Amino acid sequence: MLSNNSFKSLFDCPEKDSTAIALIFCFAILSSLITIANPGFFSHDEWDKADHVMRHGFAKYVYDYVRLSATFEFGHPVRPISFFVQGVAGLFMPTYPFVVHLMDVLMHAAVATMLFVVITRINENRRFAWASSIIFLICPLAAFSVAWPAALMDRLYILFGLVAFLATYDYVKQKNRFVNLLTIFIASTLAILSKETALVLPATLIVFPLLFSIPLRDKRLWVAFAVLSMPIIIFLLDRLPALANSMGGAVLSPYAMSWANVPDALAIYTLYPFLWLVTEPITWHLQSSSRIWFAGAAHLTLLALLWRTFSLKVVLAYMGGYIVFLMPILLISISGAHYLYGSGLAFSMAIAALITHKTSRGGKSRWFIPALMLVVASVHTLNIQRYMYDTGVCMNTAISSIESAYLSNGSPTAMAITADEGAPAHMLIHYATNREIIGNNLPLKLQVFENKHVDDDKDLYRFSSACVVYKK
Question: From the CA atom positions of the chain, what is the Rg in Å?
Fold first, then answer.
């Protein structure tokens, strides 16, 4: 067993960083066992890609998805890096779901590791780096993205964004000029080709004058900003017609943008960390007013503690770090917990900073309130993991029973399914949307109805509260 001195050495000694990183990966797996054990998936988004791989082969999938292509509206994604990873995951989805979920957890661990590396390089406070990384692994703002394979885009662009941020810091500090500029450019390119939200990455450099005493007029900072922005500008110029159609209302899309969506989006995303019973943000308004007030008061308390313990600059840096990753999606009408993955970095570092901070007299940190916040956040993470697991179990049961009903009823070309009273119809809708394949059987069109009378319609299949599709 490790002695107390061994733990101190692990926390404080740079030579122990490789051991620290190994422990980060181990903790990521241990804290995500529920996610890894999930026998199913969350929605049609990941199944769409797996279907394409099963129907046409991996090479055809790569040709169709892993390339830049013109789209009519911005809501239709162009993400070749993320789609390639999704295609690889699709190879394992039908038979080995745990491999897919393990890939997601390891990707999350890689982001936590990169966070550890960034903090130790910039701050050299390994206790703070340790705490930030561990808290990020169990952060409710990251939990939904980790448990939902189709949300790997958020993890990937944040991972590449952290690489670009570290290279920017090294460049500004006059280290390896060409190598760092090249790293910034490559990392930015990989980030924007992973998810369009990466367009916010240049804005994160405001932290340099805000916290690192690097003047805003610093020439190196502006050179790094230009290199970081270059791939993003090229990408946006290529997609400018699609962006104009989405913002101008030329198409009906759930990603249509409007300033009227901002107030509600800000409310749910700032309340979310402490609404421990909320899984999908769309249900936040169903919470009691006392829980909503608690969540708001808790986040305001966090800001007050940061101000009291550190400074107003730290508060502004936290608020900016929390909001900056949400800026592109505050304007859209739909909400999603996976959008908060980047905000989880700021949240985790804020809690970690308060817990590990010591007073100027060398006393103990004022850890009780932030530790209590961490407990509430951890309960929230556990509820998200359990919800995603229950959804996966239900979907897995539905898939098996749909295939059984399909084969036992003569392999029809279409199946219309209605939900019984109390059945989780939304889970079946998550699975059936745009699906044309069940197992190895195709083509098959699935339609799901909620609350449809079935007494006189013998062609309808039914979906029970036990997630079983059957026919009377």
Answer: 24
